[in-house]
Amino acid sequence: MPRESKKSAAQLGQEQRDRMALRARAHTAAVSCIGTIPMVSDPARREACRLNLLLFLTTYFPESTGLSPFGEDQKRAISRIGTCIIDGGRFVEAFPRGYAKTTILELAVVWALLYGHRKFTPLFGANEKTATASMDSIKSEFEENDLLLADFPEICFSIKAIDGKPQRGNSQNHKPGDVEGGNPSDDVDPRRTHIEWRSDALVLPSCLVPDGWWTIEGAKPGAPLVEPPGAGGIVITCGLLAASRGMKHKRTSGANQRPDFVFIDDPQKDEQAESPAQVSKLLSILKKSVLKMGGHKNPMAVCCAGTIIQPDDFMDQLLTPRLNPSWQSERIAMVRTWGPAKDTLWLTDYAKIRNSFDPEKIGDQSRAHADAMAFYLAHKKEMDAGHEMAWDFCYFEHIEVSAIQHAYNMLIDDGPDVFASECQNRPKPRIESVSLAPRPIAIASKANNVPRGIILRSHSTLTAFIDVQKAVLPWVVMSFGQGFGGHVVDYGLFPAQSRPYVNISDVKITLQQQFQTPVLETSLMGGMEKLVDVLAHRVFMSEVGTEMRLNLIGIDENWGDSTGIVHTFCQRSKHANIVIPQDGRFYGPQARPIDTYQLKEGERGGYGWLLTKIRNSRHVVCDVNVWKTFAQRRLALPANAPGGWSLFGRSEEHEAFSQQVAAEYPDDHTSRGTGRTVTLWQKLPGRENHGLDLVVGAAVMASTLGVKASLEMSPRRSSVRQQRRKSVSYMF
Q1: Residues 376, 42: Cα–Cα separation, whole Å
Q2: pTM of the model
């Protein structure tokens, strides 16, 4: 009996599981089958927008692109996008921030897919994250837009049925409608929609409907079942740097679908725009990979939208017909024409009132802004006269009354540099002839195509500098000539890396690995000995074929515990006659300038440096802030100008190096006690500055050898001991 009871219980349990499985399958079948696709609500409205992108944007998206009338510039750009999608071609637009450039392109993708103008659209952004944001926006319209659901049910009805659950797409099916009016036919088996709903990809459903069902006339009796134009459309996301040459998608018919419409939105980040190498890399990917995705059967449509961040960045070059003649372009400025009141009422009286608040007083800024508004309303006719705006509806309605006021508020609050870039798409060069705030792109632009290792014909002094670090030894060789003109002949890291120059954080081979020792002193000694020996024996050639060797090699003595190690090495080195430690020191506004030091017996001094002894070893002490200012002034000059500095080779070779040279910014400080103002250089967060240290160190070495630039290098104060130094040998 117990055995029989146990068996009955097992059977009962199995039956219960079978019933549960049956209910689950029934539920799945009920959820999976979405029935017959509803009829189009307004065929005439749908057909009217088929070849009119502007009408589509304003009709089907009343809460975004249909909210305010577009300006003429926007309408022209939208027309070009529509023509590009239908006929194929390349179009790039630079819109001011807030001009709906991304929204317009996202909805243009919706238009292209729904009407079947294009079948496969990769969405490219500066990275995968930005591209995914566009994908989410597009999916939201397919899923939530009631007007699209009404007029494009063959797409949106299927998407709505998924209810945000991607797994439902694997089994979703529908009942094809009959030819008399779309009612389900009992003798027709359900068909899979083949919809895919993923975070990085969307494949629109393939639903059968009677032929002519979506047109104004509607389906004709006896019409065969067909797929609507937008069936099976594909959208995927991708970062531009990860663009693939072989991108394709296999359709349900078995055919391979290649991309036919590429959407590129804000393709560059700020740091990429500042790097010539990164700009060159992005352009290369665009031309070699992205533009070749479509094959040779049909012309591909490519639309790119962005903002110009830096002169000669990715967007700026793409918008320049001389550089990229195959691209149609629109460069739209927020303010098309400035009025005569710009430099009077706007940037004087209005700006003064708007900024008249006390930042420490709560609510005072709102008071100042209200006063500025009152001033504007009282003089609106005069202040608005002569201004022409690209879009009259671009302003904050709750705190502003016109697009003109909105533009001036941005100009006053954010400054002319930001406004020129973000609003006018005409960014000002970040580095002028006297600027002390360099950008990496400006540093790299000093490349003069002279081969690596070659000295300029007019230069006669050759120095090197080694920056001591725990993992590696960065080094540079520079030549100098009259007026302190300089040229970076070569640079690198020891031990050598797989790439010519990288950030210290990216090195793969360290000194400890090179010399197989965990002892810091041993690895540093070994590294300096090997590197100095290589540099000292290296024969450099000038442009005229003259052989030159290094006159002097400076070694940084300020890293960690390296001071004693560097001094010991320089004393014992077989190249001691040309090797010298360098001590870069910080002299603030309260400190006594190094140029005012009274020279002792045997010392030598010059502009911002002092050659003296420590631990019975000679070394050079220099004011790093003075010399960083000097170096950046030289780099700010045109490379071929008298006193200008240049780099070997091509600009794209100097990505990491130029980033490091431009890793600090100037900050003037004045001492209340001395009244002295000095320029102090501060490191940008997250940036390495070894490149700047290298060129500064090499320049100081050249100055100790007598290279001069009369404008910056004022003479020392005279003293008996200073006059006596002329008879003292340079070498102790």
Answers
A1: 47
A2: 0.63
- pLDDT for residue 516: 92
CB 593 within 8 A of CB 607: no
Res. 429 pLDDT band, cuts 50 70 90: low
Please state the domain extents for the chain: 43-65+86-331, 335-422, 440-727
**Residue indicated by tokens 């000095």:** 678
CA–CA distance, 702 with 688 (Å, rounded to integer)? 24
The count of other CB atoms within 10 Å of the CB of residue 3 is 7
* CA dihedral sign, ordered 655, 660, 663, 668: negative
Name the percent of the chain lying above pLDDT 90: 53
**Residues 136-160: what's their mean pLDDT?**
94
Q: Cis omega (within 30 of 0) on the bond before 62?
A: no
Alpha-carbon gap, residue 522 to 508, rounded angstroms: 19
Q: Fill in the DSSP letter of residue 168.
A: G
Which amino acid, one-letter code, is at 722? Answer: Q
**Alpha helices (runs of H) in 266-338, residue ranges in sequence order:** 270-273, 276-288, 314-318
Average pLDDT over residues 608-620: 86
Q: How many CA atoms are closer than 13 Å to the CA of 453, on its beta-carbon side?
A: 8
Structure tokens at 524: 């540093």
φ/ψ of residue 673, rounded to 5: -75, -50
DSSP assignment string, 479-545: EEEGGG-EEEEEEEEES--SSS---GGG-SS-HHHHHT---HHHHHHHHHHHHHHHHHHPPEEETTS
Band (pLDDT 50/70/90 cuts) for residue 724 is very low
Helix (H, G, I), strand (E, B) or coil at 283: helix
Q: Is 662 helix (H, G, I), strand (E, B) or coil?
A: coil
Written as six digits, the tokens of 448 are 């003069």
Query: Which two tokens mark 85?
Result: 């999608």
Q: What is the pLDDT of residues 403-422, one digit of tens each?
A: 999 999 999 999 998 899 88
How much is the pLDDT for 23?
A: 61
> Burial of 722 by CB count in 10 Å (0-12 exposed, 13-18 middle, 19+ buried)?
middle
CATH of 43-65+86-331, one of 3.40.50, 3.30.420, 3.40.1350, 1.10.1760: 3.40.50
> Are the CB atoms for 695 and 631 separated by under 8 Å?
yes
